[in-house]
Task: structure prediction
Amino acid sequence: MLWSEKGDRHRRQTENSRENQPVTEPVPIFGAAKEFALSKEFHQQTWDDRLDAEWREILRLAVREDLRDAGDWTTRALVPEEAIGRAEVVTRRSGVIAGLPGAETALEYFDARLRWQPETEDGRTVEPGNRIARIDGPAGSLLTAERTVLNLLGRLSGIASLTRRYVEAVRGTAARIFDTRKTTPGWRRLEKYAVRCGGGWNHRTGLFDAVLIKDNHLAFCAGGDLGFPSSSDAGSAFTPAEAVRRVRQFIQVHVPQSGRVQMIVEVEIDTLDQLDELLDASPDIVLLDNMSPAQLHEVVARRDGRNRAVQLEASGGVTLETVRDIAQTGVDRISVGALTHSAACLDLAFDWLDS
Result:
């Protein structure tokens, strides 16, 4: 199997030219939103060289599990090697498309003679029966590649479609919809890209690019004497506010200058007892876990009166039925694990065209 260098180069040129362009209407998904107070933001995923390389690694595994060393017995038995076919990829349900650059990469992997002609772009809304692309080339290769291409497009388009529903549900409020790390192993950047295509925003990519002090970090430190000085009367190693200060000291010493400025520090709380002290410590974001709308209203009011620079993120059990009530409390961010762990694939199909 060989990559088509000409096709690969053309795809990269096309992607580079549109990398920072909006790919969905009416929700702009690429670029910074100036109306938000936080001066730094988590990395927002585009289909860049790194993502393309990660998709190729996944693609190799996908082809290996489908073909092994024997190949496609059904197609080899029934389809002449010289046969040429033309097909279209069509939608069976309405949704939002994501993953088109990866579909082209997959076809090139199976057979560089397959020609991919997209008729829409990532982030666009589609309706049942819409054609999103045409493919022509060796019919046997097209049949062999069919499921891998549809798996990619269906999975990512499903995430983009669900994300769009959440984004539309909070339209008119100040809240933005964010994803989480609850992603398919190996597919994180792909799935985060799909969230962007749906109009959502990416939370941290991994443990390496931001600090998020979770309840389990604090719970472990509360379980014994770690040798840290503490002002907490409860006997824990440190309060959330102290954890923020300790993390910032650690960053100053251990994180290179280039990454230090953009390193976001976020801390989770599930009660209001330590909120004022935490706001004084000025984390970039406070994560509010499983709080009721009444509690969120109170947090927003206390934040606005004490430290408006701190962003507030609501999380935990967010659904399409509850997300607007949460957004109307005035929080800045709502993180939704369901975007990636509960999205159903968008129903897509290959249909043959007359030659």
